[in-house]
Amino acid sequence: MDPRLYQAVSQGNVQELRELTEKDPKLLQSKTPHDNTVLHIAAKLGHAEFVKEVVNRDNTLLVTPNKDGDTPLHIAARTTHTNVASLLIELAKNWPDIESAKKPLKMINNQRNTALHEAVNTALHEAAGTWPLKMVDEFLSKKKTVSEFNKKKKMIHELLEADSEVTSMLNKKQETPLHIAAREGLSEIVDEILKYDPVVEPTEPTEPTEPTELTEPTEPTEPTEPTEPMKLATGTPLHQAVLGGHIKIVEKLLHEKPNLIEKDDNKGNTVLHSAAQKNYSKMVDLLLSKNPKLAYQTNKEEKSPLLVAAAYGSNAAIEEILKHCPDAVEQADDKGRNALHIAVNSRAVGSLKFLLKRIKSEDIINRPDKNGNTPLHLAAQKSRIQSMLLLLKDKRVKPYLVNNDGKTARILVESLEGGMDTYEMYIWKKLKERETKTISKQQFPEATKSRSFRRQVTPSDKQFKSIATTYTLVAALIATVTFAATFTVPGGYGQNDGKPLLTHHAAFKVFIISNTIAMCSSLVVVFCFIYAWKDPVQFKLNQLKWGHRLIVIACLAMIVALATAVFVTISEDCKWLAIVVILICCSAPFIVWAILREDVLFIPVPQ
Q1: What confidence score (pLDDT) does residue 272 get?
Q2: Transmembrane region positions (predicted)?
Q3: CA pair distance 313, 317, nearest whole angstrom
Q4: Is the torsion defined by CA of 311, 312, 314, 320 positive or negative?
Q5: Domain's final residue, options 317, 337, 365
Q6: pLDDT of residue 223
Q7: Residue 374 lies in a domain
Q8: d(C-alpha 545, C-alpha 548), whole Å
Q9: Within this chain, do residues 184 and 292 fall inside the same structural domain, yes or no?
Q10: Cβ distance 295 to 321 under 8 Å?
Q11: Pair 398, 438: CB distance under 8 Å
């Protein structure tokens, strides 16, 4: 692009543009390395008068794309320059019919986005706005964001007024503008689009308008009528609203388009499948109250919403589904697996535990899949240690049942490749004990002779010693420190009677209690870990959990002891310092949680 022209458009200098184009009219056709014309640049910078002058001199620039396929209208739609956008929209509406091979409002870029797609996408950023972290700027930034969102809303209204047919156009992600607005919770934009009664189930587009160079208009061909609406990977706008967790938008869409609740995506998933996956209990409740039949509708893998919830460990969704439709638990997928099988297979131990509490039928708990495998068989086959332990604790589980190959869960554990490790050996013993109790008068199934029962060394076994040593060391240190604090109490002792001087103080009493809790908790850990060698498997599956919890309790108690000790000794002389120390102590657990989140409660045991 000519440097003088580039400078003129950057400054919005209309007079300079006129002088340059009068000398060389072809100058307007020059482009940047990214194929941006002067109209692209002017639209981005918001120079409305410059845009008007350029289009008056060469209107073909209105439909000239850059390397991203963006026309100037795409560029303007991304900005908040409503004056430029309004001007380009008005020019696009008046586009000559003879050049209808390219309608600016329907032109798509390389992502197959129309200008309306771009406007809605950027409205998301204006609405959700990156709220500033600095409190001083918060009010001004919010005010600015609201103002920019209102400008964007006005732009979207003008685009819809100009051509409402674009509401049914799909981009590369198979999203209409309504899909985007519904997913991102743009309630006002959803309202605006719904006014134009959009097609919520678009049909397969015929000959999409690609952003190519203008050619001679050709005779339009008759589009073929699609036999049925497309089933998209993104589903309907209702699917997107559910995935986004926007209940108000879901209610709005159900009010305006009630038939959407029965529609599925290209994999057969209904909106209830989406809500179950995301564990949105309120959404599940809303959808089932509108249409209880959704609980029984399966996708192409014959998975019901309950099975999807079990696969994702969505306990809240499971509870709502079973509350509305308790018999949904009987459904199975194309492999004959019910919710218990799915929870085992997905390592969703929490969901398995929840389902075992809610399911009353012994038949469902022991129901085999198409291969004859019960949930216990599947857990044994996949070496799901925690799942097997949960199932074995339930007296309704029958460990002696055989699958289609004539194998019990115990035999499947024996058949694991590489032999059994310490966990699997422990499970094998438990299975044998249960079999002995339940079929004491029958012959056991034949054991697998080709497998070794010798303890195998696994990565978890190698870490065992270091984990046990670390916990023991930490517990011993806490016990030592707290024991010493017992004899060096804050405030000291009286010279005459040798009694603590501050026993009357409430904070002193809290110090004594918290210090005692910390010491006793750590001593219990030390004592239990000394016996870790006796039964390493039982230690890993049980004692390690309690040891971890007791260490956390001891650490919290130490923080309380520190805060109260400082408070009781200096509060009378320097109260503000005592308060500062207490605030610092109180912030410590929250800082740890902010850094580690759920990992604070992580226990290194197998699933």
Answers
A1: 96
A2: 470-490, 510-530, 550-570, 576-596
A3: 9
A4: negative
A5: 365
A6: 42
A7: no
A8: 5
A9: no
A10: yes
A11: yes
Residue 241 backbone phi and psi in degrees, to 5: -65, -40
pLDDT, tens only, 163-207: 988 998 999 999 999 999 999 999 999 999 999 887 766 655 444
Q: What is the pLDDT of residues 79-95, one digit of tens each?
A: 989 899 999 999 888 87
* CA angle, residues 158, 163, 166, in degrees to nearest 5: 110
Task: Report the alpha-carbon distance of residue 308 to residue 353 in Å, rounded.
Answer: 16
User: Are residue 360 and residue 470 in the same domain, yes or no?
Assistant: no
Residue that finishes a domain, picked among 132, 165, 194: 194
**Which CATH number goes with the domain that contains 40?**
1.25.40.20
User: How many domains in the chain?
Assistant: 3
**Burial class of 440 by CB neighbour count within 10 A (0 to 12, 13 to 18, 19+):** exposed
What pLDDT does residue 438 have? Answer: 66
Tell how far CA 182 is from the center of its chain: 17
In which residue ranges of the chain is pLDDT below 50?
Answer: 98, 101, 128-142, 205-227, 448-457, 459
Amino acid code (one letter) for 439? I
> Whole-model pTM?
0.74
Q: Give the range of the structural domain holding residue 61, as residue numbers without chain letter.
A: 3-194
Give me the torsion for CA of 132, 137, 142, 148, rounded to 10°: -90
Distances (CA, A) of 445 to 69, 369, 413: 69, 20, 13
Q: Which two tokens stand for residue 465?
A: 């010693």
Domain match, 162 and 298 both: no
**Nearest CA among 42, 45, 35 for reference residue 211:** 35
Q: What is d(CA 92, CA 217) in angstroms, rounded to the nearest whole number? A: 17
| Residue 165 domain flag | yes
The verdict on 185 and 55 lying in the same domain is yes
Cβ neighbors of 401 (< 8 A, separation 6 or more) are 366, 368, 374, 376, 377, 408, 409
313-338 residues labelled b (16+ CB within 10 A) or e (exposed) = bbbbbbbbbbebbeebbbbbbeeebb
Is the residue at 520 inside a domain? yes
Q: How much is the pLDDT for 504?
A: 79
SS3 499: coil
373 within a domain of the structure (yes/no): no
Answer yes or no: do 512 and 594 share one domain. Answer: yes
Provide the token pair at 113.
């986005």
My answer on whether 41 and 124 are in the same domain is yes
